[in-house]
Amino acid sequence: MIEKAAPLPPTVFPLAKRRVWAMLAGSLVFVALGIAFLIAHSTVKMTVAGALAVLFFGFCSVSFIRLLLRGRPELVLDDAGVDHVRLGRLGWDEIAAARMREQRVRNTSQRFIELVLHDPDAYLARAPELVRRTASANARLGLGPATVATNTLPVPPEAVLEAMRLHCPGLPVQH
After folding, report:
1. Angstrom distance (rounded) from CA 135 to CA 73
2. Contact 101, 87 (CB under 8 A)
3. Is 97:161 a contact under the CB 8 Å cutoff?
4. What is the pTM of this model?
5. In sequence order, what DSSP letters do the residues of 56-124 get, joined into one string?
6. Mean pLDDT estimate for the chain
7. Contact, 153 vs 75, CB < 8 A?
8. Which of 130, 138, 137 is nearest to 113 (CA)?
9. 101 closest CA partner among 32, 26, 174
């Protein structure tokens, strides 16, 4: 008789607060630069650039403040599945594979963990609004709808993929 292994305790990844504070500081600097462009308004281009900077980086600043004030972990893995603050809850049976992806833009790159889903349309039907809004942009970048940005996690993406492998040993994981 084969005994089932005892369930693992959840693996909890809190928000990487130092990184978010740094991103907030950077956004506020760009808001200040945008305001300076608006005050100087020496050219139409400067005025437009200032207005766009204030709007975009102001939105980013508010988003970072909301992240810092939120009281829940960024990501929780357990034997039943994944609970991500933006993606919501996904069961392991919904996830076909997990893989690390990197998106390069000019001189920088952003790493993501992509959860490849068996039925992306079924997930999108119940996904949070922000995920539904960004799904087409993700598709244009060659990503599925369930992507986990790693810049707000306190560990490298390899550690998250390894924890996924521990909670769901049969999950195909690609580094």
Report:
1. 23
2. no
3. no
4. 0.77
5. HHHHHHHHHHHHHH--S-SEEE-SSEEEETTTEEEEGGGEEEEEEEEEEETTEEEEEEEEEES-HHHHH
6. 88
7. yes
8. 138
9. 174
